[in-house]
Amino acid sequence: MQKLRVIGASWCPDCKRSKTFLGQHRIAYDWVDMENNPEAIAEVEHLNGGKRSIPTIIFPDGSILVEPTNDELADKLNIARSADNDFYDLVIAGGGPASLTTAIYAARENLKVLIVEKSSVGGQAGVTERFDNYPGFPDGIGGADLADRFTQQARKYGVEILQAVRVENFTSNEMGIDVLTSTNQLIQARALMLATGSTYRRTDAIGEDELIGAGIHFCATCYGPFYKGAEELVVLGGGNSGLEEGLFLTQFADHVTVIERGRSLKGSKLLQEKVLNHEKMSVKFNLGVKEFTSTEGGKKTFEHAADGAFVFIGLDPNTKWLPAGIDLDERGFIKTDQMFRTSLAGVFAAGDVRAGSTKQLASAVGEGAATAIQIRYYLDSLS
User: Fold this and answer.
1) 350-370 residue pLDDT tens
2) Which domain covers residue 232, as residue numbers?
3) Where are the beta strands (DSSP E) in the chain?
4) Is residue 213 located within the same domain as residue 359?
């Protein structure tokens, strides 16, 4: 099947955004860097009346989008962005494993369920290269494959899923919970579940912001293939995510170096053994990042030349959008009781965004199932 093509440049922020959007939705595409490609420059100018407007995205049917917003891309790719109904028993903000599991359990109880996901369903699991410790798959399973299975099962039971849409706000009243989406649709729900997950933490080192998407990345599955044939890649962080993604990157680069701030790796013993015994990997301890630079001569305590850097140094919760009334802990994660209830009646939370969660796939699935049961009890109490 012919892929769509994205023509742009490494320094173009709109190109980075479009590539990230396509990668999150697992849309296959070919990237054409026009900086050193006269033919690509000529094609862009021809398509745009002499202008070098990028990104220029060319679809298999010959149509194009120039400097599109994420909304325009979603519309072009036929990603549903409006709910079919104005009332649901349960609305779930976020589309990762916790929310998909809750949705499956709730839908099997004949509840009308809507998932609202700002990017693509599957969450971080969907862009993780491989899971070797998820029960039931002794030979491991790819993250995208597992996310697709979750999604297919949810849809099998009638769960409605909106992608490229986010929950903008919500308010409680005597009738339930009014949920406002980013497409300005007002939806009423009897219960709301918050499962918006977390985002990879940045280093805040000098030069990081300027190089994100152009040498610095937070998703090896999304960007690793662009480094096929690279001499050296760096992974920052020695936890499970860093080690897993570092191993994945060895299929593209000649060598991968893991840099860990502490004196030892934090990942599982099995991953540590794989990394430490891998002929294409090495580890440097007791080092942090002071500066990123794309040119020589950076004033750093320690220099390590690399074709790209992948950052896996922890997670920050996606909770800045939440309205007043939801109690958070000191790190911004949502506080819940043992029944996964938040400080607002009818609002529950599960998965990575919840304070005390283990940030593991199997745990997220377990929390999703447990939350579905508590939501069922809550809705029964309203009858």
Assistant:
1) 999 999 998 789 999 999 999
2) 208-311
3) 4-8, 29-33, 56-58, 64-66, 87-93, 113-117, 130-131, 141-142, 160-163, 167-173, 176-181, 186-194, 198-200, 216-217, 233-236, 256-259, 281-284, 308-311, 315-317, 347-349
4) no
